[in-house]
Amino acid sequence: MHTEKLQAFTISTIDYGDSDRIVSLFTLEQGRLRAFARGARKSRKRFGAALEPFARIEVQVRIKEGLSGLVQADIHSIYPHIRNDLEKIAHALYACELVDSITAESQPLPRLYRLFAAYLDRLETAPAQEDERRFFEINLLNILGYRPALENCSRCGTSYNTRGAILLEGGELCCGPCAAPGRPLSDATLKNLQACLGTGTFGSIPLQPDVLIQAGALLDDAISAHTGRRLKSLNFLRQVSL
Amino acid sequence: MLTKASSLSRLVGELKKLPGVGERTALRLAFHLLKSPQNLTTLAEALLEVRAKVRTCSTCFAITEDDPCTICSGRRDTGTICVVENSQDLMALERSNAYHGVYHVLEGAISPLAGVGPDALRISELLERIHRGGVNEVVIATNFSVEGEATALYLAKLLKSVNIKVSRLAHGIPLGSDIEFVDAATVQWALQGRNEL
Lengths: 242, 197
Ligand SMILES: [Zn+2]
Ligand SMILES: [Zn+2]
Fold this sequence. Notes:
Chain A is α+β, with helices and mostly antiparallel strands. Chain A has two domains: 2-78, CATH 2.40.50.140; 81-241, Recombination protein O, C-terminal domain (de novo design (two linked rop proteins), Up-down Bundle). Chain A has helices at 44-47, 80-83, 86-102, 110-125, 130-143, 187-197, 209-227, 233-241, and strands spanning 2-16, 20-27, 31-37, 56-63, 68-77, 165-167, 173-174, 183-185. The longest helix of chain A is centred in the C-terminal third of the chain and has 19 residues, at 209-227. Chain B is α/β, with parallel strands linked by helices. Helices cover 43% and strands 13% of the residues of chain B. Chain B has a four-stranded parallel beta sheet. In chain B, α1 (7-16) crosses α2 (23-35). The A-B interface holds A 12, 18-19, 48-50, 52-55, 74-78, 80-81, 83-86, 89-90, 93-94, 96-97, 232-233, 235-237, 239-240 and B 19-20, 110, 112-115, 117-118, 145-146, 149-150, 153-154, 157, 183-186, 188-189, 191-192. The complex binds zinc ion (ZN) (2 copies). One zinc ion (ZN) binds at residues 153, 155-156, 158, 174-175, 177-178 of chain A. Chain B: Keywords: DNA damage, DNA recombination, DNA repair, Metal-binding, Zinc, Zinc-finger.
């Protein structure tokens, strides 16, 4: 057992008993980590807003297998502009839930950490937008090794060229001849998604409405295939984005 | 002496369900009650009385014994509705003696990560009250957590179409404190909500 200082985001908390909380942290150094926050419910002062979702913090954690212990949490940012905008809150919470449910515990993912931080920084300074959420999702899948087959058929390996692809269940992509009935994805959609992976800058690849619909179908399928469930925060995201 | 089926262990079991009460505290409380049979009787009566009498106000959804509650039926400014998450928050506002309008208890807050959406709250009942007329201001007093903020912003958006004033309790540096000692989150939030002088 040893204590470490980590850069982290709070991504979820659950109450434990009457006075404690278990917090899910996404850390730069150690990936996703569950930590026991003793006294977090009893005294708001103990950790304050540090244990609110999407707070960017620096923590001291007593590392233990299974459940670590939270010793101290200092706030770097609560993202005040996100907290003051309904759509931004919905997008930020969705990003938290996505990272919480798709990453394995104690697996360092520094690239994903930087992507997540960049997404929150972007939400803090620019309006919440559907295409930037999709940009976050495709890059997240790529970093986790779940990149969809955007160039060549996942079954026979043939290049799509400019013919586009067919979306099968579970976010699988393949060419026309290989395909069972599925949803067509245009060449423009595939190229746009590739472009999203070619840059780390949010807002640099605007997606047209038809591309957004197709990319959304692919990403929704691919993500739920990996999380194994529908994310709870999606309902709220839909409700406020109307 | 304490068998699983005994009435005493049943009492301990029930006490343990209370927040903050573990096995040892439950035992201690049970034995304390046993020492005075009179205490046991009055506690039992109080519990049954609460069960029989306490309900929620059909207008504002506050915990009450009378329906409508004493606030809804009292001499209050019914043109101003203060929206709170629960009855404890309502009581805190009442203790301030600074508010003279009526209330609306949402019975929770929007919590997307827990799957609690607006439909799970008493929002449609609030809208009904407003549509019945006579309301000129809604004061939103949900908590200053992400969930409370989401709820406040959602209500503000919803009420935009209705022609009434919507306000939010002010937030920021605690009264009587030195800025030097205030945590970063509170300062960030206070800057966000700064007022023009
Ligand atoms: Zn093929
Ligand atoms: Zn009432």
